[in-house]
């Protein structure tokens, strides 16, 4: 009896030591990045890119776990293998392609300068002597940093997501916020205290980010092609942005995998 009891206790201890169920694909996302990935009223993680990655996984026969990671941490998480895929309206750039890989793009975008409606900032030139907020490591961060001298920006304040930046903008702790225009438009549509002072043409495109040597990258890209051809990506765009994407956009057109 003692032997059986000891054996049972050892089995329980061993079971407790086993790791929790691991999904086939761990997907990193900067949750709070509306409407790309954020929590709804019930706490569920939803959004345009969440719909895309969940559908891609379903078609691949894979399980998915979403892990909340600050934007700047997504790059090292992919490279280290901690996650297999990263989403968060991540712009494909030549610099990033040196260390990570992307599937074909699925969204075209620009940057924007958002301000409080009551301010007198109406252009980038009006940011002289002002404090501007950006998301750490984002293309908005890169743009503001590269153009600090040109526009005589006094200070750049960095955030880990749109919501805290917009709250600081409302509190006048910053004078403007440079970020992806679709996310800002979605956020301010029911918040009349904000407005977009300037659209900043940057010709950005977003996609799934993976490690360079991830063996399932080609399959993921093939599935994205299928999702474009059968209209899933376009319908998801309509669901989250309320408009039909242009026929010549990367949301609709099948495109090549980005390369250096």
General description of the model:
- Helix 2 (48-60) packs across helix 9 (217-229).
- The strands form 4 sheets. A 5-stranded mixed β-sheet has the order 9-8-10-7-11, with helices on both faces. Strands 4-1-5 form a 3-stranded parallel β-sheet, sandwiched between helices. It has a two-stranded antiparallel ribbon with strand order 2-3.
- It contains 10 helices and 12 strands.
- The chain is α/β, with parallel strands linked by helices and 260 residues long.
- The model is unreliable at 1-20 (pLDDT under 50).
- Helix content is 35%, strand content 23%.
- The chain is globular, with a radius of gyration of 21 Å.
- It has 2 domains: 24-106 and 207-241, Periplasmic binding protein-like II (D-Maltodextrin-Binding Protein, domain 2, 3-Layer(aba) Sandwich), CATH 3.40.190.10; 108-204, 3-Layer(aba) Sandwich (D-Maltodextrin-Binding Protein, domain 2), CATH 3.40.190.
Return the domain count: 2
The CATH architecture assignment of the largest domain turns out to be 3-Layer(aba) Sandwich
Which strands sit side by side, in order, in the main sheet? 9-8-10-7-11
Which superfamily, in CATH terms, is the homologous superfamily of the largest domain?
Periplasmic binding protein-like II
Q: Please report the first level of CATH classification, the CATH class of the largest domain.
A: Alpha Beta
Question: What's the mean pLDDT score?
Answer: 92
State the end-to-end CA separation: 67 Å
Morphology = globular
- Report the total helices: 10
Unreliable residue runs: 1-20
Give me the Rg, rounded: 21 Å
Strand content: 15-25%
> How much helix is in the residues?
25-40%
Secondary structure category: alpha/beta
- Characterize the biggest β-sheet: 5 strands, mixed
Output the CATH topology of the largest domain: D-Maltodextrin-Binding Protein, domain 2
- The helix/strand series, from N terminus to C terminus, equals HEEEHEHEHEEEHHEHEHEEHH
Count of individual beta strands: 12
């Amino acid at each position: 009896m003692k032997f059986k009891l000891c054996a049972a206790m050892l089995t329980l201890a061993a079971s407790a030591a086993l790791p929790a169920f691991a999904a086939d694909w761990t997907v990193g996302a900067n949750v709070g990045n509306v409407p790309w990935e954020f929590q709804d009223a019930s706490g569920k993680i939803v959004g345009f890119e969440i719909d895309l990655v969940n559908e891609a996984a379903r078609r691949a026969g894979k399980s998915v776990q979403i892990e909340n990671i600050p934007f700047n941490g997504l790059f090292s998480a992919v490279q280290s293998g901690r996650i297999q895929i990263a989403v968060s309206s991540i712009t494909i750039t030549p610099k990033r392609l040196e260390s990570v890989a992307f599937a074909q793009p699925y969204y075209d975008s620009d940057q924007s300068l958002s301000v409080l409606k009551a301010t007198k900032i109406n252009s980038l030139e009006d940011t002289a002597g002002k404090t501007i907020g950006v998301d750490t490591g984002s293309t908005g961060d890169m743009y503001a940093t590269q153009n600090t001298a040109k526009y005589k920006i006094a200070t750049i304040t960095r955030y880990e997501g749109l919501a805290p930046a917009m709250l600081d903008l409302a509190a006048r702790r910053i004078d403007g916020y440079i970020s992806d225009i679709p996310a800002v438009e979605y956020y301010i549509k029911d918040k009349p205290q904000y407005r977009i002072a300037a659209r900043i043409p940057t010709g950005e495109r977003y996609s799934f980010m993976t490690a360079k040597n991830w063996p399932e990258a080609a399959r993921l890209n093939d599935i994205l092609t299928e999702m474009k051809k059968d209209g899933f990506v376009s319908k998801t765009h309509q669901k989250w942005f309320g408009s039909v994407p242009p026929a010549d956009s990367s949301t609709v057109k099948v495109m090549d995998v980005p390369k250096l």
